From TrEMBL:
<dbReference type="Pfam" id="PF00990">
    <property type="entry name" value="GGDEF"/>
</dbReference>
<dbReference type="Pfam" id="PF12860">
    <property type="entry name" value="PAS_7"/>
</dbReference>
<dbReference type="Pfam" id="PF00563">
    <property type="entry name" value="EAL"/>
</dbReference>
<dbReference type="Pfam" id="PF13185">
    <property type="entry name" value="GAF_2"/>
</dbReference>
<dbReference type="InterPro" id="IPR043128">
    <property type="entry name" value="Rev_trsase/Diguanyl_cyclase"/>
</dbReference>
<feature type="domain" description="GGDEF">
    <location>
        <begin position="519"/>
        <end position="653"/>
    </location>
</feature>
<feature type="domain" description="PAC">
    <location>
        <begin position="269"/>
        <end position="321"/>
    </location>
</feature>
<dbReference type="GO" id="GO:0071732">
    <property type="term" value="P:cellular response to nitric oxide"/>
</dbReference>
<dbReference type="Pfam" id="PF08448">
    <property type="entry name" value="PAS_4"/>
</dbReference>
<dbReference type="InterPro" id="IPR029016">
    <property type="entry name" value="GAF-like_dom_sf"/>
</dbReference>
<dbReference type="GO" id="GO:0071111">
    <property type="term" value="F:cyclic-guanylate-specific phosphodiesterase activity"/>
</dbReference>
<feature type="domain" description="EAL">
    <location>
        <begin position="662"/>
        <end position="916"/>
    </location>
</feature>
<dbReference type="InterPro" id="IPR035919">
    <property type="entry name" value="EAL_sf"/>
</dbReference>
<dbReference type="InterPro" id="IPR001633">
    <property type="entry name" value="EAL_dom"/>
</dbReference>
<dbReference type="InterPro" id="IPR013656">
    <property type="entry name" value="PAS_4"/>
</dbReference>
<dbReference type="InterPro" id="IPR003018">
    <property type="entry name" value="GAF"/>
</dbReference>
<dbReference type="InterPro" id="IPR035965">
    <property type="entry name" value="PAS-like_dom_sf"/>
</dbReference>
């Protein structure tokens, strides 16, 4: 046993003995000393006394040491922050410290050793510091003591405090318990838990969230802002400023904004800010910064939240860019500008991507550079004009296949076998090409994305490819459509030659060049001869083929600098650019053109030879401007027609005199109707057998106010050319019907009035209506009206002519064929015509007596008419011999000077009265 332990045990025994016992021992010792062996006993007694004294001193020293140690233990226990209590097996208090009394608000002197647990619980209930009723607490304590394991629990006192109790049973039935007031600790832990929960909460927020003090130092930051700024933990952000995270100019901008918020107290709401994160990626944020105030309303910091709107900004850029590109397309911006803007838009949406557009050439087999602002110029120059095919990189193959070609590694893909070195020289490792198709599926070009890394396109890049190819297709199609529209606006659809709209521009440029270099410009006006006959006999398709063939031949006869123009119909103009001042040289070119036109043309089963009337005018001698040159070349062309066609004529000033007169005549004709300058005269038609007048032909005359009476031959061709013959003919029809009705009303014998119908009138859709109106307005019966049509007019369109004549016949109107024998009608056609009379043209009557051919024709016509049950009338009869021939050949009727010249309406009454 340890000495201290022995001494302590002994001390305990000594302290536990009674004083009477101690005196008894002392008395016994003295009696022993008085024994016979007195000497020895005396010595022994002395020794015993000395030992006792030593032992007593040691004992008292040990007691003092133990008392000091106990005092220290008591002091230590009383200064422990936890309350401690010791109970024996009988539930009596052995020891408790001061903190235990303080926790339960009991005076320390009221907690003396020996108190039972029940007594102590009653004191706690009285102090209002019990967590539960006394019986319940005692039951809980005894339940814990019945086991061998410790138990911890928390007691919530009535006064609101929280006590944590640790109860440890001992083997002998006693126990030790500690009691700790954790009210503040619980509150602090709650704050810590709340902080931890708040940090967890804001870390889950994908937006930037932070709190800064008045010096713009981070106090709180969430994981999003920490991660984007290259920090592993949010705590690494605490104490930092924007100057530790961003470039100085950007950090200064943020600090100025935040200081303004702190100074003014006004929040910044949803302002857009651009930030470059730790990876170098630029991002757009919508930021809100709000000042923080304490209970005194003093600002002690600010809280901020920023939402990443980079995707939205990119979408806005894409949408705005798309709108701008569509606007460029709508306003006809140059295609290269549209495609360049489109490629820059694509590259702004992606990182590490370069865009390119190649356009399919007109030949349909090569790709031409369209736009590639990000690609190296050497590369774009090298692939410009590449042919499409099955192994021509990504672009040539995509155009050939008409489907996307995605190449993840150009160094390995067989499509790039011939172009790997070119791509490697510029660092292009992947290329994704998509054909640009029209709305009809035709290949217009190829859009390609290049990347410097080996990879395939992402889903977002695929969507952008689809968008870009659609926009590019719209732009290219619009440009092609504009080109076609421009071409059609300036070129003839049938022949592809420049048209009248482009003629003036080309001619003006040629004149400017001639002025500068003292040269000539020659304008050649060409009109095909008898082209209408081709259309009428072989159809318009044949006529179109003839025009295209002649146009191509004329183009082959001139230089590339010259211009061949189709004005319309069968009229062409050639502008000979930069001509020498030599008429003979020009004549050689014209003769070459004339001979080329005259070469045979095969039109189906027919082989034709075309001719042309050509007029020539040259700058500067024949005109100083385009209009004058064209007018004079036109006048020369008409002179060529007058000379029998199939020739060319150089312009002469006198041509304009004739042209001017023609123009004046046309203008005066337009005013003649309004001024009532037209009048009718009537020439009788006589029955050769009875000698009676049975009809009159109405003939129009023009009583010009200054030139007097103008015969029909002088103005009818001009009226036909201008279309004025239609209103003039309508006036003649109405006036003739009115006059015939007046004669009838005046008591004259009923007779037929004959009115000539021109080809222009006959083709009018409302001819029948005009006839009906004339009869209705005049009140004349249809049987007293006869319309004379020429043989050539009928043969222009037999089906239309027969249909029109049948309608007129159904009205009761009679039809006669004028100038019969000068046309080319067949007997099979003639027998289908619903006509009543044939009129032998006066050209066969003039020399009827002396010319056997005329006699043969006249006899044949008379015989033909009789065979077809048609009456035959001869016009232009002037002599008795002519009358005798007609009577011998049984001609039915005659008209001419032999009987009467054309006379006025009043003279007809006298003439009829004289014959009666």
């Amino acid at each position: 046993m340890h000495p201290f332990s022995l001494q302590a045990s002994f001390l305990c025994l000594a302290l536990s003995a009674e004083p009477e016992d101690f005196r008894l021992v002392t008395k016994s010792s003295r009696q022993a000393a008085e024994a016979p062996e007195s000497t020895n006993l005396a010595a022994l007694a002395k020794l015993t006394t000395a030992s006792y004294e030593i032992l007593e001193r040691e004992l008292r020293a040990a007691i003092a040491a133990l008392e000091d140690q106990a005092l220290r233990f008591e002091t230590a226990i009383d200064n422990i922050s936890q309350g401690i209590c010791f109970f024996d097996a009988d539930e009596r208090l052995i020891l408790c410290n001061r903190r235990y009394a303080e926790i339960y608000r009991i005076a320390p002197e009221q907690l003396q050793p020996g108190l039972t647990l029940g007594e102590i619980v009653e004191r706690r209930v009285a102090a209002g510091t019990s967590a539960m009723a006394a019986d319940a607490y005692l039951a809980l304590a005894r339940a814990v003591n019945s086991g061998a394991a410790s138990r911890n629990w928390t007691a919530n006192l009535i006064d609101g405090r929280t006590i944590q109790i640790c109860h440890r049973p001992m083997p002998d039935g006693s126990w030790i318990a500690t009691h700790e007031d954790i009210t503040e600790l619980a509150a602090n832990r709650l704050i810590v838990d709340e902080r931890m929960s708040l940090q967890t909460l804001i870390d889950w927020v994908p937006d930037y969230m932070w709190v800064k003090d008045t010096e713009s130092r981070f106090v709180v930051a969430n994981r999003a802002i920490a991660s984007d700024n290259g920090r592993d933990k949010t705590s690494d952000m605490i104490g930092l400023t924007d100057f530790d995270l961003h470039a100085p100019d950007l950090a200064q901008k943020f600090r100025a904004i935040e200081q303004d918020v702190l100074r003014s107290g006004q929040p910044m709401i949803d302002e857009e800010e651009f930030v470059v994160d730790a990876s170098g990626a630029g991002k757009w944020f919508s930021s809100t910064k709000v000042p923080l105030r304490n209970v005194q309303s003093d600002i002690f910091g600010l809280v901020g939240i920023a939402r990443d709107i980079t995707a939205r900004k990119q979408a806005d850029v894409l949408r705005d860019g798309q709108a701008h590109i569509l606007e460029m397309i709508a306003t006809s911006a140059p295609l290269e500008d549209v495609l360049d803007r489109l490629m820059r838009l694509v590259e702004s949406q992606l990182t590490g991507i370069l865009g390119s557009v190649l356009l399919l050439d007109k030949d349909g087999s090569h790709l031409r550079h369209g736009a590639a602002p990000g690609l190296a110029k050497d590369y774009t120059n090298a692939i410009d004009g590449v042919a499409i095919g099955p192994k021509v990189g990504s672009c040539g193959t995509a155009a050939y296949r008409r489907e996307p070609v995605i190449v993840a590694d150009v160094m390995q893909d067989p499509h790039w076998e011939d172009y790997r070195e070119l791509a490697a020289a510029h660092g292009y490792r992947s290329c994704w090409s998509t054909p640009i198709l029209s709305h009809q599926g035709a290949v217009l070009g190829v859009f390609a994305m290049y990347s410097t890394t080996v990879r395939e396109p992402t889903e977002a890049e695929t969507r952008l490819i689809d968008f870009t190819t659609r926009i590019a297709g719209i732009a290219i199609e619009r440009k092609l459509a504009e080109d076609r529209i421009h071409f059609m606006a300036n070129h003839d659809v049938l022949t592809g030659l420049p048209n009248r709209a482009l003629l003036e521009d080309r001619l003006s440029q040629a004149i400017l060049y001639a002025q500068r270099y003292d040269r000539w410009v020659t304008v050649v006006f060409i009109d095909l001869d008898n082209f209408k006959l081709v259309n009428d006999t072989l159809g318009h398709n044949a006529g179109d083929e003839l025009l295209k063939t002649v146009a191509a031949r004329m183009v082959e006869c001139v230089r590339a600098t010259d211009t061949v123009v189709r004005l319309g119909g069968d009229e062409f103009v050639i502008v000979l650019f930069d001509q020498p001042t030599n008429v003979d040289r020009i004549a050689e070119t014209l003769q070459k053109i004339r001979m080329a036109i005259a070469e045979p043309v095969q039109l189906g089963a027919h082989r034709l030879r075309a001719t042309a009337s050509i007029g020539i005018a040259s700058y500067p001698k024949d005109g100083a401007n385009p209009d004058a040159l064209l007018a004079n070349a036109d006048a020369a062309m008409y002179r060529a027609k007058e000379f029998g066609r199939d020739n060319f004529q150089f312009y002469a000033p006198e041509f304009n005199t004739t042209a001017h007169e023609k123009f004046v005549l046309q203008e005066e004709l337009r005013n003649a109707l309004a001024r009532s300058e037209f009048t009718l005269v009537y020439q009788p038609q006589v029955d050769l057998r009875s000698g009676q007048v049975f009809a009159v032909e109405a003939l129009v005359r023009w009583n010009h106010p200054t030139r007097g009476t103008i015969p029909p031959t002088a103005f009818i061709p001009a009226a036909e050319e201008t279309g004025l013959i239609v209103p003039i003919g309508d006036w003649v029809l109405h006036e003739a019907c009115r006059q015939n009705k007046d004669w009838q009303d005046a008591g004259l014998p009923p007779m037929t009035i004959c009115v000539n119908v021109s080809a222009r009138q006959f083709r009018e859709r409302n001819l029948i209506g005009r006839v009906v109106n004339a009869l209705a307005d005049s009140g004349l019966e249809a049987g007293y009206l006869e319309l004379e049509v020429t043989e050539s007019l009928i043969m222009q369109d037999i089906d239309l002519a027969v249909a029109t004549m049948n309608e007129l016949q159904s009205l009761g109107v009679q039809i006669s064929i004028d100038d019969f024998g000068t046309g080319y009608s067949s007997l099979s056609a003639l027998k289908t015509f619903p006509v009543a009379r044939l009129k032998i043209d006066k050209s066969f009557i003039n020399d009827l007596v002396a010319d056997e051919n005329d006699q043969a024709v006249a006899s044949a016509v008379i015989s033909l008419g009789q065979k077809l049950n048609l009456r035959v009338i001869a016009e232009g009869v002037e002599t008795e011999d002519q009358v005798a021939f007609l009577r011998r050949n049984n001609c039915d009727e005659m008209q001419g000077y032999h009987f009467s010249k054309p006379v006025s309406a009043s003279d007809i009454g006298e003439l009829l009265g004289r014959k009666d």
